[in-house]
Amino acid sequence: MTVLISGASGTIGRMLIRELEGECDLRLLSRKEIPGDPRWWQVDVTDFQSVEKACQGVDTVIHLAIATGQEGDYEDDIFNRERLDTNVKGTYNVFEAARRGGVGRFIYTSSLTVVWGYPAPTYVDGDAPAKPVGTYALTKHLGEQIACYYASEFEMSVICLRIPKPIDIEDPQSKAEPILPQWIAFPDLIQAYRLSIEVQDVSFEVITVVGESSVRRWDLGRAESILGYQPTFNLEEAGYTLRVEPSAYDRDGVVWGKN
Questions:
Q1: What is the DSSP string of 59-109?
Q2: How far apart (Å, rounded) are the C-alpha atoms in residues 184 and 187?
């Protein structure tokens, strides 16, 4: 099986490579040049011709590429234009290239910020209607709409994973400060991607995966029933201290969320 990972040089991409190499033929896309390894292709997802070429002969796409440089709630006109180009135009390009290349499974990496408009302590379904907070969340929601379109119009098998920030539990420094209760241990996140590659008979699904804790308010039922997902780490039992989850904060008169 040939698995293409866009944005493969990012944090999640590097973890996926470590877990999947030796099991799959990997095709790894990055905007920066990574010499010495033929699996790496220097591709900007906003360049359709390059993406189309990369998607030839691919069985599964894991789409991770996002505008980099700032996280979550950062707002700036120039950076937001880059977000729209990469997260929306780039996502469209990868879906269209995958369609033309006959890709069988597309895993779109969405974000928990897409439903951050449900304030704590609201319990949020795994496929809850979008309530994006902030420009990043908006672009990820638009990506979900693109995903739905390709699944319905072209019968592409698509899974949208709504994910929070991952935690490297092997890094002792990750426990130095309290974390948000929805953050997820890397092994559990990687499990969700593995299962998304393997699961059969999926047309289009939106699935939430988050960390397990005593205060989890994000439903894992769809992840469990559709993927067979079972979290292996409880954040508190793993030694993490959870901080109070902010539903929003006010900056310059605008309400934003956190991922």
A1: SEEEE-----SS-TT---HHHHHHHIIIIIIHHHHHHHHHHHHT-SEEEEE
A2: 8
Parallel, antiparallel, or unpaired: how do β-strands 249-251 and 254-256 relate?
antiparallel
Buried b (16+ CB within 10 A) or exposed e, 66-103: bbeeeebbebeeebbebbbebbbbbbbbbbbbbbebeb
- Note the pLDDT tens digit of each residue in 76-103: 767 778 889 999 999 999 999 999 999 9
Cα-based angle 135, 136, 139 (whole degrees, multiple of 5):
85
As a whole number of angstroms, the distance between CA 79 and CA 85 comes to 10
- C-alpha closest to that of 185 among 230, 132, 133: 230
Token pair 């379904």: residue: 125
Residue-range domains of the chain with CATH: 2-256 (3.40.50.720)
Whose tokens are 């397990």? That residue is 212
Tokens 């948000």 locate to 180
Q: What angle do CA 208, 185, 194 make, to 5 degrees?
A: 60
Reduced to 3 states (helix: H, G, I; strand: E, B; else coil), residue 187 is: helix
Does the pLDDT at position 254 exceed 60?
A: no
Q: Which pLDDT does position 8 carry in this prediction?
A: 96
